[in-house]
Amino acid sequence: MSKGQPLRVRLYRFMIYVAAVLLVMLAIVFSVARVLLNDLGKYREVVEQQVSQLLDQKVRIQGFDARLEGITPVLIFKDVELLNSKTDKELARFSEARIGLAVLASIRELHIVPGEITINGIHIMLTRHKNGSLSVQGLKVSQAGGIEQTSSDNQLAQWLFTYSDLSLENSSIVWQDRLRGKRYQFNDVNVHLTNSGRRHILSGQMEVPKALGRDVKFSADVDGDTLNPQDWQGTFYAQAYSVDIRQWEQFRPQWNNAHLKSGQLDVRLWGAWRQNRLAS
User: Fold this and answer.
1) pLDDT band at residue 25, thresholds of 50, 70 and 90?
2) pTM for the whole structure
């Protein structure tokens, strides 16, 4: 026992030393990178190629920065355009993308392994079609100040729902319901999304239009094709404030033969979803 103790102590000290050296090296590399990439124009093509590999989607960027958050290196990209991999048309645009690097995984794999990705300021249109299917498109502000839709294929949806650890901050979602003829815009959307194959776990909160209520908090654990609600199975929870029940006809509460036709409610709702309907 007495012989083993010094060995464990030496091993522990060695590991601390290696970790400290790695952190110092990372700090130096990041400092040099910030200096070299201060003029992004000279290195734009190389950087965009590397970012495209990290995001697993072709991108165009206008600015770059890097910093250490605790022991986690974070790459920061400004004014990012997510591009269609075949046509180079814009899929979505966002003000900032932050990519945290998985340090231990990067050391083990001997190349950069991205951890959580945080997207700031993305604008999305989510459309429910008359057949019940969903589609996702990016939105951008035109030079005249109007809103334009981007590429109409589902590459954006595939990217959002396949990356393992993704967060959206300070974003907006336009919900266009062609089945019921409704359209609403939700602002200040903050969502954390974890994807693993067909399983998708999300949680977050957003500001709803005044006609519907106030803020909404939500979480869900869903298995299935994200663009086909008939294939969904899972559980959900939602908490909403000052809900105007006149705007939610299909969800109006009732007790025996008594119905609420107007008024505002604070709501907590949880249940299960199967085959495009509430199961419990």
Assistant:
1) low
2) 0.76
